[in-house]
């Protein structure tokens, strides 16, 4: 992936999650971007200006009357390639809606013509309040990407939606926008089911057969779909220790058979189903109910009898509702007879899905990596090459292809 250095304004408003903005600034500078931090005056009650100055390497001010000779309240917005506000409090959302410009951050937002991402953080009641709902809708209708807050422990003893998404998730969304891809509400009103991660097939209560899938691509697809307005359910097998995509419902499963049950139930009224999971093709025929012992059960341990798992994708295609779009994945290495792409073309026909994302794997490519590449194939015979990019950038391209085919 080629990284191009961009001008990013990181806005910080006054909430307890302001400390997480420090990590976000670090992520952006490590990616090679030039960062200016613009806190609101209340944000500085949580994190000092010195911290933001040290991390960004640039001066920090909050007022339109600081560094007046540089006309910062205009220059910052004009020169920005992206404005990211994390955390964005309920108060800040309201002030952006009415177009206030009485501090450096709101003035910068009024000037900026680049993409703007808001990562809200507030108490659940505030997030659900009719005023905030209306403000979020208005901001989104103006093309601003308002991320869904994460669900979890809040400042007090309360729990619910309102936590700041993890800085890595915010940075990933920022990267999608910097790559010129859209996060507009093109999936609004659609129900989407996405499988992610690898299945685990029990040998006994301790051991299992599994695979190297990390779940990253499925989770990235879910995050982009949430951002585009879809109602998203993830059916997840084993995944790396990834934060749950904010705004998505998640159902955890173990084996392929459990995954099939969960997906069939979740997809009964889904508009789009994406099988990004790495489903084990086989499972042990007779899993033991107690731990197999080396000296005692050597036969069972040395000769493993396997049976085939159901092909979940094929089942979804066979039972597809009218208008439902089914998306498959293919992990291909290519061989002496066929390239990875040729294998994918055959698989699209064989599986009968509408869109197939083919990853070229092997030699350390794709599995567990943050980047992905390959081809997107559609039932109309189109093949789009997907250049190396983050799994979020790839997810945005996959959704573009799905949206073009759906309906
Ligand atoms: N898949 C599935 N159920 C299975 C195996 C795979 O639903 N039992 C889905 C995967 O989620 C993916 C697609 O089918 O979307 C292709 O998976 P892949 O492992 O590449 O294909 P296989 O069907 O296993 O074919 P082959 O082993 O011949 O490559």
UniProtKB/TrEMBL annotation:
Region (Phosphopantothenoylcysteine decarboxylase): 1-191
Binding site for CTP: 281, 291, 310-313, 329, 347, 351
Enzyme Commission number(s): 4.1.1.36, 6.3.2.5
Reactions catalysed, as given in the entry: N-[(R)-4-phosphopantothenoyl]-L-cysteine + H(+) = (R)-4'-phosphopantetheine + CO2; (R)-4'-phosphopantothenate + L-cysteine + CTP = N-[(R)-4-phosphopantothenoyl]-L-cysteine + CMP + diphosphate + H(+)
One Pfam assignment: DFP
UniProt GO cellular component terms: phosphopantothenoylcysteine decarboxylase complex
Co-factor: note: Binds 1 FMN per subunit.
InterPro entries associated with the record: CoaB-like_sf (IPR035929), CoaBC (IPR005252), DNA/pantothenate-metab_flavo_C (IPR007085), Flavin_trans-like (IPR036551), Flavoprotein (IPR003382)
Region (Phosphopantothenate--cysteine ligase): 192-407
Keyword Lyase: yes
Domain DNA/pantothenate metabolism flavoprotein C-terminal: 187-403
Gene3D superfamilies assigned to the protein according to its UniProt record, in alphabetical order: CoaB-like (3.40.50.10300), Flavin prenyltransferase-like (3.40.50.1950)
Cofactor(s) essential for the protein: FMN; Mg(2+)
Keyword Flavoprotein carried by entry: yes
Keywords: Decarboxylase, Flavoprotein, FMN, Ligase, Lyase, Magnesium, Metal-binding, Multifunctional enzyme
Pathway stated in the Swiss-Prot or TrEMBL entry: Cofactor biosynthesis; coenzyme A biosynthesis; CoA from (R)-pantothenate: step 2/5; Cofactor biosynthesis; coenzyme A biosynthesis; CoA from (R)-pantothenate: step 3/5
Any single biological process term in GO: pantothenate catabolic process
GO molecular function, a single term: metal ion binding
Residues covered by the Flavoprotein domain: 6-172
Similarity comment: In the C-terminal section; belongs to the PPC synthetase family.
Function per UniProt: Catalyzes two sequential steps in the biosynthesis of coenzyme A. In the first step cysteine is conjugated to 4'-phosphopantothenate to form 4-phosphopantothenoylcysteine. In the second step the latter compound is decarboxylated to form 4'-phosphopantotheine. Catalyzes two steps in the biosynthesis of coenzyme A. In the first step cysteine is conjugated to 4'-phosphopantothenate to form 4-phosphopantothenoylcysteine, in the latter compound is decarboxylated to form 4'-phosphopantotheine.
NCBIfam families: coaBC_dfp
Name the record gives this protein: Coenzyme A biosynthesis bifunctional protein CoaBC
Originating species: Corynebacterium canis
Source organism phylogeny: Bacteria, Bacillati, Actinomycetota, Actinomycetes, Mycobacteriales
